[in-house]
Amino acid sequence: MPDQPSLVLYGFWRSMAAYRVRVALALKGVAVRELAIDLDAGEQFAPDFLAVNPEGAVPALIEPGQAPLTQSMAILEYLEERYPQPALLPADLRGRARVRSLAALVVSDTHPLIVPRVRTYLAAEAGLGEAAVHAWSTHWVARGLAAMETRLAGASATGAFCHGDSVTFADICLGNLGIAARNLRIDLAQTPTVARIIERCDALEAFANAHPSRQLGAPG
User: Fold this and answer.
1) Which of 113, 136, 160, 187 is the most exposed place for a label (fewest CB within 10 A)?
2) DSSP string, the chain
3) Same domain (yes/no): 102, 69
4) 139 and 182 co-located in one domain
5) Domain containing residue 69
6) Phi and psi at residue 157, in whole multiples of 5°?
7) End residue of a domain, out of 49, 69, 86
8) Distances (CA, A) of 67 to 61, 82, 129, 210
9) pLDDT tens digit string along 109-120?
10) pLDDT tens track of the chain, all 220 residues?
């Protein structure tokens, strides 16, 4: 029997944050064994998992003999330094800042507003019905897509991907925003630059294999 990968990723099939880490690991050719934490069943609050991540959230990356790494972007930064090739950040200072800014537009300003714990709170504590919660999510994802389009369209630094002609953190984050948009049935025709880059990312094996629909536990 072949040896198991030394890296372990705690994830969940539908988690967009875990998706980001899956894509980065695949792009860098790093083998990982993923353990599913069923967020719908509340497994993230089990004592054993809270010992890994007291926040009760995925992803968490475990390397033998080291403390767990949490938060998807911190994990991506770690992977970039630990496995520098292929690079997912530009070589120049301003380019790295631009890519991190584009990534943060998704990871910091958009995605946190639509995560399950926020939607659950809106329904259970704020009394919003299913339609209102859906409208909330649609509003913020559409707003994020529009902002990305404005940032990317016509910018000299934008190429085949968000920054130049190779994949960066920005594309990984935009890829997960594209999944959210399709789930919400948002028409990407209004954001043609975004749509073009998402389509290019989707064609790459690393993105396709990381898609939620291909993960253990995803609905058949």
Assistant:
1) 187
2) -PPPPS-EEEE-TT-HHHHHHHHHHHHTT---EEEE--TTTTGGGSHHHHTT-TT--S-EEE-TTSPPEESHHHHHHHHHHHS-SS-SS-SSHHHHHHHHHHHHHHHTTTGGGTSHHHHHHHHHTS---HHHHHHHHHHHHHHHHHHHHHHHTT-TTB-SSSSBTS--HHHHHHHHHHHHHHHTT--GGG-HHHHHHHHHHHTSHHHHHHSGGGSTT---
3) no
4) yes
5) 8-86
6) -80, -15
7) 86
8) 9, 15, 40, 25
9) 999 999 998 999
10) 456 678 999 999 999 999 999 999 999 999 999 999 999 999 999 999 999 999 999 999 999 999 999 999 999 999 999 999 999 999 999 999 999 999 999 999 999 999 998 999 999 999 999 999 999 999 999 999 999 999 999 899 999 999 999 999 999 999 999 999 999 999 999 999 999 999 999 999 999 999 999 998 898 7
Identity at 195, one-letter amino acid code? A
Of 86, 107, 131, the residue at which a domain comes to its end is 86
């559409």: which residue's tokens? 142
CATH of the domain at 159: 1.20.1050.10
